[in-house]
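hiii so um. not sure if this is the right channel but i have a protein structure encoded as tokens and i wanna go backwards to a sequence. like what aa goes where. can anyone help
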């Protein structure tokens, strides 16, 4: 009976996913709607570029689960989820990520029902597989942010040289968009395109700051906005900004070197129990069979895995607690 129910649910999930994919909009339609959403700005002050800014929360697309996006707009949690998705550059929406998480959770639950029918195993498998789409979003957001921050100093240098040569700010941004590496060129190209659409430079920069929540970029955007409103030598400000950013990145590199031992210790302590269990069972087959067959043994496995995860999280927080 369990296999029959599991097969029915699996066929239902696959069929539902196939119908959604077939009935969904094309990639061209998504790009058009996302491009139109990027030029909608409602911010009027620099401090409004934080999480509560409305422009980023209106980054809607032609999602097949639009009703979920509308529901998210009423709650701060949904807004933060949509913001993370946009910052990660994922070709999806918050509703799409949520549906992926639900689908993976159902798959994990079915696998646990077939392989190891136990309540803790079913809940654990559903949670682990269900969190994979969200982990992907976090990883892509972090990778995009690191790549952008690594390319930002050279991009500011390019802007400063263009301003020294007599170009306007829009021309300097265009030069960065054409010559910078991909992570920076995409964002500055978006700023240049928004200006061509008629969006003020201030609002275009604030939107870029929302898409890329980098403290280094915030310094640059603040300097440009203040200079345009009060005047001053923007080239000199950019030179000092580049110096500060590079010094900050150098110090961060030194910190990563000093904390490398702690990170390696965390990986070893987290993986060693699992690795030793696998090696022991290869050398002596059936050594840990009682842990899998006895109810108390399975509970001990769940407790051990939970403590391993908790220890890894604590070590990570200690190692990453130093910031510049």
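sure thing!! here u go:
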């Amino acid at each position: 009976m369990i296999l029959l129910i599991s097969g029915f649910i699996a066929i239902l999930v696959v069929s539902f996913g196939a119908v959604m994919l077939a009935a969904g909009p094309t990639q061209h339609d998504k790009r058009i709607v996302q491009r139109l959403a990027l030029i909608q700005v409602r911010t009027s002050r620099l401090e409004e570029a934080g999480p509560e800014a409305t422009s980023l929360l209106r980054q809607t697309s032609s999602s097949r689960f639009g009703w979920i996006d509308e529901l998210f707009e009423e709650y701060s949690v949904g807004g933060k989820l949509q913001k993370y998705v946009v910052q990660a550059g994922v070709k999806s929406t918050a509703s799409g990520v949520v549906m992926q998480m639900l689908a993976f959770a159902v798959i994990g639950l079915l696998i646990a029902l077939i392989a190891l029918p136990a309540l803790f195993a079913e809940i654990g498998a559903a949670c682990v597989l269900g969190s994979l789409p969200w982990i992907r979003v976090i990883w892509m957001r972090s990778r995009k942010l690191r790549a952008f921050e690594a390319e930002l100093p050279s991009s500011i240098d390019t802007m400063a040289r263009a301003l020294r040569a007599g170009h306007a700010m829009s021309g300097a941004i265009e030069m960065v968009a054409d010559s910078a590496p991909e992570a920076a060129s995409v964002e500055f190209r978006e700023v240049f395109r928004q200006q061509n659409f008629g969006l003020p430079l201030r609002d275009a920069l604030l939107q870029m700051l929302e898409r890329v929540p980098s403290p280094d970029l915030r310094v640059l955007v603040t300097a440009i906005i203040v200079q345009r409103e009060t005047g001053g030598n923007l080239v000199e400000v950019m030179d000092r900004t580049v110096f500060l950013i590079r010094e900050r990145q150098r110090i961060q590199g030194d910190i990563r070197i000093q904390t490398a031992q702690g990170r390696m210790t965390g990986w070893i302590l987290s993986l060693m129990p699992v690795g030793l269990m696998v090696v022991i069972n290869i050398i002596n087959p059936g050594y840990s069979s009682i842990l899998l067959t006895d109810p108390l043994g399975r509970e001990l496995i769940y407790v051990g895995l939970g403590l391993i995860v908790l220890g890894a999280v604590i070590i990570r927080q200690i190692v990453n607690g130093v910031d510049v």
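oh and Residues 2-130 form one domain.
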